[in-house]
Amino acid sequence: MLKVLIVDDEPWVLEGLRTMIDWEKFGYEVCGEAQNGTDAMRLIQENKPELVLTDINMPVINGLELITKLNEVMEKPPKFVILSGYDDFKYARTALRQRVNEYLLKPIDDEEIEALLSRITPIIQNEIASNEEFDKKQFFIVNNIINRLIQGEYNENLELLTRNTLKLQADAELMCILIEPSSSMNPFQPQISDYFSEEHFCFFQDGSGRAGIILQSASIGNESLETIVNQMHSDLTEQSQELVFLALSSRMVGVSSIREIYRQALEVWKRKTHQQKRGVFYYSELRSLKKEEPHEDHFRQLLHKVQTNDSEQIQPCVKEAFTAFVENLLTLEVVKAKVAHLELTICRIIAQMNGDPDKIMTKLQQEYGNLGELSDYFILSRYVQNLCERAAVYLSELEQQNEQNTIYKVIQYVDREFRNKLKLQDLAQQFHINSTYLGQLFRKQTGQGFSEYLNAKRIEEAKSLLKRTQLKISDIAVQVGFSNTDYFIDKFKLLVGVVPSVYKNENKNQQL
Length: 512
Known about the structure:
The protein is an alpha/beta fold. The chain has helices spanning 11-20, 37-47, 63-73, 89-95, 110-150, 156-166, 222-240, 258-274, 283-289, 294-307, 311-327, 332-352, 358-368, 377-404, 406-417, 424-430, 435-446, 450-468, 473-480, 485-496, 500-511, and strands spanning 2-7, 28-34, 51-55, 79-84, 102-105, 173-180, 201-205, 211-216, 245-248, 252-253, 279-282. The strands form two sheets. Strands 6, 7, 8, 9, 10 and 11 form a six-stranded mixed sheet that branches. β7 (201-205) and β8 form a beta hairpin. α5 runs antiparallel to α6 (156-166) and α11 runs antiparallel to α14. The protein starts with a strand and ends with a helix. Residues 408-506 form the HTH araC/xylS-type domain. Residues 3-121 form the Response regulatory domain. Pfam families: HTH_18, Response_reg.
């Protein structure tokens, strides 16, 4: 059944519209009534009706203001029909230019409204069918990408595809949530949007049919997350009339972390379902209760040896790790997945230190071939040993270069602290360098003056917040480091070409 909501400040009009129309005949149920715009705003956002009939003249918020506000805040606003007296007819005509679909003049004739429903209902049904078809296609695309990542596939092209499809920033903070039983979630009509805004999550099913969510979690604090998932657990349990289980990973950064956060959520799922427990469980709690697996500990130690260039201890550490793999009966494919994660971590560290991962990876693959082609434990252990030894030497060289390159440290500091109050003179004093010379080095290294670079960094962060939050523009200005909102707006328009409010609305329209 489609849902219709009626808004009018006259109780007799509400009563008449509810009773004079055979709503069920046209496939509708009345999901709510409101006598003012404020109540209507709340009820429409809660019930998400497909159709709203609203009077123009109402207290607090009139009909046109209500429609305008809902079009701004709702991803998929309903169809609107304006109820207008003859004296307000000119307003009804204005309303037709504000995404209002039809209007009815009072007093309302039952034949007229039935004729209107005959016209507008097929339009609504066709749009719903079209949206459902689009959602199905989108689900299959996203599901395929997520499953490729959680199965261990990763390369630059796949990362770019993932970021574009899921609308992720390079440094997006991510979490994975697994839901059991999966029957409690419909992949084509996910209830997740009741708890998280649509641009902050994607729904998937793994190879075993488990339902999962990849969540952009940066804007959600731990307390808020706990409240949301507890409510989600309660609602799903009530709806499905089954005991529901939610397994949550830790928070990690970037597309390359998707496999790991899925693995964490899966580990929680395996341990808790084996114990026949239901509820909400976190990987962080699991880690505090369990003893780390020996091979996990060895790989952490191995990464530490690489970062400290402890070359003498790399070989023994690799040997201990692979001995632990054998003792724990891990398959070669599982081990290769762990090695791939170690390899990606080392490459990310090299890149963060302004190095080129291909400098060691190209030679390594020329000698051993691709990681996926390695066919036994011994060759794989030699691969890991050579990877770590070469990475240790290269990272040591990069560290020495970076220590000699003060401007690199300054840029890193600005990239990290741009939200705070920064001045070139203060940085020069902090890094023990003449401020004029520092300004020259900064322009030579980045192609921009210090202030230009800092403002560009802040504006990029502001663009991200405008896309993914409902914060006020003044609050965003403060969060990214501008103490003066007008100055922020001027700089934003200079760099982006439009003011922040226009940029925010353009991105909203693109998502509809």
